[in-house]
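ok so I'm stuck.
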Amino acid sequence: MFKLAPALAAGCTLVIKPSPETVLDAFLLAEAVEAAGLPAGVVNVVPAGREVGAYLVAHPGVDKVAFTGSTAAGRAIAETCGRLLRPVTLELGGKSAAIVLEDAELDLAQIGEGLFTSTLLNNGQTCFLGTRVLAPRSRYGEVVDAFSAFATSLQVGPASAPETQIGPMATAAQRDRVEAYIAKGRSEHGQITAGGKRPELDRGFFVEPTVFAGLSNSSTLAREEIFGPVLTVIAYDGVDDAVRIANGSDFGLGGTVWTADPERGAEVARRVRTGTIGVNRYIPDPAAPFGGVKNSGIGRELGPEGLAAYQQLQSVYL
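replied:
not stuck anymore, here's the structure
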């Protein structure tokens, strides 16, 4: 929808190729487009694999490409679009930092909802989530305990159940990938303080919300995008060190700063090299541009910039 809405508003027609692992929502979208009475051919949904995706990216009838997915796939798309001089927007991976300042409130009754949407939304399968939790060394144990209690408190279950907060991974392969990262964290001497196992459920590709302590920013879990419900709590010494660690990543998509002083939080947020960041909360605003820097992508979606991405300027001189 980040792509569909501005493209339609700009007068474009679209070919949408969903991920082959998650096509049911694309079918629902196609039904909604038909029910809304859009003319045939304006929105086209093509469920297919990577080969068809590559064909569409290079097709001479395509004027612009917009992609959400992995950094590796984004690089391949960018290479093709660069050769063809074709405009492209890439919304790629993330490994965002959640910076907990010394004065931060850790009462889950007050911050639990904000923590959930900024760290474990959609079972951790969201690119902007703050999965690197940076904690002041003076409060490190307290932060670890708070996040561990937070992870343990979340209701795990079927995605269709209203009370569920953590549902399944999208595929068995993704669950296996997340579990491999958990095993890697153990092998690098991280301590699991919450989760780390499969819950006892009859169906679905589940992983418990998991918290690691004792790892540095150079660890695999802090460097690579897991795309699952796994958080790593990293200690820092002073605000300058926190900013250094936050910026010490190949990614730059989201992030948060947690503090009792919002003005100070905004000052720290401006020092983090990332496309978006929140103070004591994080949720994308449709009126504000969304996108990343470094390996997190090129271009912006949402806001006026998102609409401009589907327009071509022309100057007429009289």
